Structure formats: C-alpha cells, structure tokens
Amino acid sequence: QVQLAESGGGLVQPGGSLRLSCAASVSGFDINAMGWFRQAPGKERELVARLTDDGTTTYADSVKGRFTISRDNAKIAVYLQMNSLKPEDTAVYYCHAAATRAYHILTRDYWGQGTQVTVSS
User: How many CB atoms lie within 10 A of CB 24?
Assistant: First the structure.
C-alpha cells in the first residue's frame, strides 16, 4: 500500500513562492523515487522534478534555478520549493512515487490526487 497526500497549492502573484508537500503512507513497499509532475490546461503531464533514492535530482529545463526538490526519507515525504513563479507555471501538480513491493523486483507508479497552482496577477 502506497498513498500520497499533497498540500501547499494555491494562488500566488508572479514572482511569488509556494512550497508543495507530499507525505507517503507506505506499507510493504520500498520507495525508490519521489517527485512532482504537472499538467497545464490543454497540455500533457510533464515531469517537474524528481529525486531518486541515490540522491540524483532531475528538473525540467523550464524550472531549473527556480524550483528545488527535497526529500525526507525518515518521514517518506517530498517537497517542492517553487520560487520566482511565472504564469506559465500554472498547472495541477501531482506528487509521484516509484515503489517496489517488499521482496519483489517490479516497480510501480503511484500518484497523488493533485493540487492546483495558479500564478496570476
């Protein structure tokens, strides 16, 4: 069982900041990676930032230098600090986890419900 609970979305002015949080409730699984995806109106879901269990981070080119992903392995939580927000950052942001069931080898994807981030003046 892997369940993801998101928080932190909202409405901000351009240039403002938001911090998204995602806490994972895990039973019988090992988390291999956690991250954030987003989907804007009329567009496909895209990777925003991802952090693997070895500490490797991946960012979309559009958010490099503005967004920072971090993970609390003790709490099995992931955060996304978003600074210098732009209107084009407006989207539904989804927490994501890649997990492997204990004593198995196949990795599965798990998704949060999504939280709306709107950047507008």
Answer: 21
Which tokens is 90 given? 């407006």
Asked if residues 9 and 117 have their Cβ atoms less than 8 Å apart, the reply is yes
Q: Are residues 83 and 59 in contact, defined by beta-carbon separation less than 8 angstroms?
A: no
pLDDT digits (tens, 9 = 90+) for 31-73: 999 999 999 999 999 999 999 988 999 999 999 999 999 988 7
Q: Which two tokens stand for residue 88?
A: 């084009």
Residue 89's SS3 state is: helix
Q: Which residues, including other chains, have CB under 8 Å from residue 54's CB and lie 6 or more apart?
A: none
The pLDDT tens digits for 6-38 are 999 999 999 999 999 999 998 889 999 999 999
Residue with tokens 């978003």: 82
Six-digit token pair at 51?
A: 């952090």
